[in-house]
Design a protein that fits this description.
Blueprint: E1 2-5, H1 20-28, E2 32-36, H2 47-53, E3 56-58, H3 61-65, E4 69-71, E5 89-92, H4 100-108, E6 112-115, H5 130-147, E7 169-173, H6 177-188, E8 192-197, H7 200-210, E9 214-218, H8 221-230, E10 233-236, H9 251-255, E11 262-265, E12 287-290, E13 293-296, H10 306-327, H11 329-335, H12 337-340, E14 343-346, E15 349-350, H13 353-359, H14 366-370
Parallel strand pairs: 1-2, 1-4, 2-3, 4-5, 5-6, 7-8, 7-10, 8-9, 10-11, 11-13
Antiparallel strand pairs: 6-14, 12-13, 14-15
Helix pairs in contact: 1-2, 5-6, 10-11
The structure holds 1,4-dihydronicotinamide adenine dinucleotide and pyruvic acid (PYR).
Active site: 95, 269
Keywords: NAD, Nucleotide-binding, Oxidoreductase
Protein name: Alanine dehydrogenase
Amino acid sequence: MRIGIPKEIKNNENRVAITPAGVLTLKNAGHEVFVETNAGLGSGFTDNQYIQAGAKIVNTAKDAWAQDMVMKVKEPLPQEYDYFYEGLILFTYLHLANEPELTRVLLEKKVVGIAYETVQLANGTLPLLTPMSEVAGRMAAQIGAQFLEKPKGGKGILLAGIPGVKRANVTIIGGGVVGTNAAKIAVGLGANVTILDLSPERLRYLDDTFGTSINTMMSNPMNIADCVAESDLVIGAVLIPGAKAPKLVTEDMVKQMTEGSVIVDVAIDQGGIFETSDHVSTHDNPTYVKHGVLHYAVANMPGGVPRTATIGLTNVTVPYALQIANKGFKEACIGNPALLKGLNTVDGFVTYKAVADGLGLEYRNANELFV
Ligand SMILES: NC(=O)C1=CN([C@@H]2O[C@H](COP(=O)(O)OP(=O)(O)OC[C@H]3O[C@@H](n4cnc5c(N)ncnc54)[C@H](O)[C@@H]3O)[C@@H](O)[C@H]2O)C=CC1
Ligand SMILES: CC(=O)C(=O)O
């Protein structure tokens, strides 16, 4: 199969969809990889390293997109939609529940859209989201700590406090991969950390893992309101796979926070869990203020640490790309139920139920389209 790797064009998105090591793996299996010139530079990979691994370097995005399968990191932006063609296999993060226009174009052009974030193993875990959630969770605590500093617009407190001065309160809503990793760093930085989740099993796991260094609470509107009001930093880390994020923190709750507090809404890629995080921000201009509270709502947080993130992402995506390239997308999906769950659009239909429901579109079971 011919596989294209365009340079990412989102604001400060320095990740790339493959490393030279990934190219070599695909090449050794008999595939051709076409990397847009300088696509890897932001992650520290030169054209020459890709060439050494067996890639061909192409000079334009158009050439990188004109392949059987395109691997990317972020969802395509409108200026990339013209590259879509019928039957193109697009393997990337898509977050379609929050992208009605992109979904419409993928359907109209009959692109096969396989979303990293909905590939799901039998145990419910999301293997192609996990490493980026680990990165974003760890960043969320660091970023929250930075924006609590006065020169960054925050109230001017240190997460750990000092002897004689109390620690900051950090609330994490959603105790999955992002939440757990945010907690690791926030606890390490000395904060008083509370995690809320809807799943009693998950709360037990967190309690067993962190012991008395965190507080756990059941996620319900009353507990969320109480925790948010007392928090210096609130991190949004909820996911219902494929679906638009539920707005769990209302505007009234945010109004109860003290001035200079910080919200880091990691779940913004699925629409965000705060009523007040109503738009995404960028690495260039990462925060906006509502009711005196700083909101950080960057949808590609790992793009800020591209070297770590690119290697972490491609460690998990390349084995799936290899299956698609070796067998074609249909056989690969039939042979691997986890990959089948990644299929979001095929032949002009939405094949992921939560996306179809969220956007009010017809849902078709992918298996029906394979016959
Ligand atoms: N902004 C960015 O750059 C990035 C964003 N993300 C996003 O972060 C979000 C979280 O991802 P993961 O931690 O990997 O998901 P996950 O599936 O590991 O965890 C989600 C957690 O939310 C919990 N949950 C569901 N409904 C809840 C509710 N009403 N109240 C409290 N908890 C609830 C679930 O029980 C689960 O523990 C996703 O939207 C993901 O796409 C991930 C990486 C980068
Ligand atoms: C998960 C995602 O959207 C990201 O890593 O940018």
